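Late entry, written up from scratch paper. The run itself happened at the end of the previous shift, but nothing got recorded in the book at the time, so transcribing now.
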Amino acid sequence: MKSRFAVFCCLLVVTKVYSGPKFEREVIDDKVLVGYGVAVGDVDGDGKEDILLADKRHFSWYKNPGWEEFVLARNITLRDNVCIAAQDIDGDGKVEIAVGARWNPGNTVERMASGSVHYLERPEDPKKFWNPVELYHDPTIHRMRWVPGADNAYRLVVLPLHGIGNKKGEGENGVNVRVYQPDLRWLAQSRAWSHEVIDRSLHVTHNFDNDRGTLYIGGAEGIVRRHVSDTTEGDARLIHPDNSTPPTRGVGEVRKGNDFIAAIEPLHGNDLVTYTEIEGEKNQWTRTLLTDQLSEGHALAVADLAGDEAEEIVAGWRKSNEAGDTGIKIFSQTGDSWESHWIDQNGMATEDLKLADLDGDGKLDIIAAGRASNNLVIYWNRSE
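Output as recorded:
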């Protein structure tokens, strides 16, 4: 029988009496259809972080506290919604919202049959429907995020799944990592949004992270590092099979830690790994396997959840693994070893998760959406 925990590069993941951050589970929606994407931000300007969700046919926000749901937009395309990004980009204390829809990953050619990018125009009452303003887009739009540039102005970074015209991850074209910069005076006018491609290094991508304007993009050929304002041509892969030991298997989820990069491998894979740069060997990376017991790993976060200045890794997966489990686990590092602990065992088939301090106590909570579990859940951080 295959071991449930993997030993690799002299680093052991163990389960023992847990002393790390502790969480209390609260279901705020048990009728989620897919839960493609989660975002967090202050929608109504009351100073509290609200939760936003991209579900199959509608985009919603849940008002903090109480978590009453309000629909932002419904059926904006004939296909599924797939992603959402929320950020206060103009400094008025209320988020601007962008969304992606028309999810059709099998069509990598036709823009009007695959993918969409919309800015949602805010109504006077944010509890009413928001007006979707369609922007230019590539096919197979999959992920988006607001990212500040060197000038501190926010751009919308949008990531398709495939390069245009590619089939089964192969073809002539790299994925267009496209950056949109709006004129804040005319956000509801599509012509006020300029855009440019900043990277084409990967032929299949899945997700990305932002570290103060530097993007870490995960794909089948490794991890790209590119600044949001950088339009230099050429291969920008930071980690690839030739400079990682053992070689990278391709990356589905990626998050930047202080002294490591966490990833789920391969795309929709079962491995949770860290990459650390080898001391004295620039651009050479050690790949360390923490566990191979995910199944369709689809959500990842890195942060200090215990308030002790040490970072934890939170990983979620959406299909039953070899032991029959879905859920979310937290991985905490102690010296040269990592210990794992359940956050949710079989109550969350994780499609996406985010971290945010929802109750203002200075501790990050976990918000997760489940596909097969059809739920949206807050895991309140009750660490002492």
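DSSP finds no helices and 31 strands in the chain.
(Scratch paper discarded after transcription.)
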